[in-house]
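Query form — protein choline-phosphate cytidylyltransferase

QUESTION: What is the three-dimensional structure of this chain?
INPUT:
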Amino acid sequence: MEPPSSSRMNSRKRRKDGSGPNGATELDGIPQKMSRRSFGLREPAPFSDEVEIDYSKPYIRVTYEEAMRGTPLDRPVRVYADGIFDLFHSGHARALMQAKNLFPNTYLIVGVCSDELTHNFKGFTVMNENERYDAVQHCRYVDEVVRNAPWTLTPEFLAEHRIDFVAHDDIPYSSAGSDDVYKHIKEAGMFAPTQRTEGISTSDIITRIVRDYDVYARRNLQRGYTAKELNVSFINEKKYHLQERVDKVKKRVKDVEEKSKEFVQKVEEKSIDLIQKWEEKSREFIGNFLEMFGPEGALKHMLKEGKGRMLQAISPKQSPSSSPTHDRSPSPSFRWPFSTKTPPSSPVNRSRNESAVTYDISEDEED
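ANSWER: The C-alpha cells for choline-phosphate cytidylyltransferase are given below.
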C-alpha cells in the first residue's frame, strides 16, 4: 500500500523555457508545499477521556474504498492502534507513522495497556504505565491516547470510540488463550496491516541491557547510585569498584604508551629531518670545496694568473735589435757565475772573490 503522499507526485517533464522556480513546471515531480505549522504539533496528544464526542450523530463505518478515496475533513477515518510501547523506540514510531498514513484523511487513536494487564498477559515492563502513556502522547503521529486499553477489542469498545479500522502488523499475535487476538477484526474487514521495523524491538533492547549488565551497573555506581538502588550485592559492589580502578590504571598505561609512541615518532621524524639537512649541507660543502681546490678549480686558475704576473714582473725587457749601438746607454755589468774574468775591485773584495769566476758583460762585449 503506497502512502497517500505519492498521489501528489506527477510524471517528470521539464520545458526548455524554464518557467517556474529553477526551471520547474507544474508537471515536474515536485511535492506540493505544505503549511509550516502542519509539520509538527505544539502540544502532546490528548487522552480519550479529555475529548468530547458528538454521540448525536450515528456511528456509520466507512468502507476501505471510501477511506482510500478520501473522506471530508469533518469526517476523518478513525484508525486505532494498540500496544505496550515499553521503552518507546523508533520501531514503535514507524508503526504509528504507517497507521497515520494509511488513508488521506486519518485520525489516529492509540491504545496503551495498563501495567496490570501487561504483567498478567505478557510480563514485567521497564517503564510504568504513566511513563508509557506520556511517551506515546509525545509522538507526532498520534491524535488521541486511550489509557488502560483492553487486551482484546470488543464490539462495545469499537463502537464507543467509533473506530473504522484497526492497524497492526499482520503477524498473528497469540495471547490470552487465542492464536490471534485480531482474528475477529480481520474477519470483520476492519484490519489494516502495517510493517514491522526489523532490527529493533523492546526485547532486543532489554537483551542488550542484560548482556552488558556489569558495564551499566559499574557506570551507574560511578554516577552516584547506591548498590541497593541497583540491587547489587556487597561483594559485587566491591568487585565493580576494583574493576573500575583496574580499568583506570589500564587507561593510564595506555595513555602513557600512546604518548611515548608519539614522542618516539616525533624524535624519528626530527632525526630524519636533521640527517637530510646534514646530507644537503655536506653535498653543498663538497661541491664548494671542489670548485675551489679541484683539478680545474678556481684556486688553480688564481695560481696560474699569479705565476704569470710574477714571471712578467721579474723578467727583464730586451732592447730592440734595430736601435743604434752608440745611442745606447752603458749597460749595467752583471756578474755571471763560472766567469774567468773578474771586474776590478778592492783588495778585500779581490781576496773574497778569488774562487768566483765572473764576466763583466758590457754592451761592447755583447756586440
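ADDITIONAL NOTE: Residues 202-256+267-306 form one domain.
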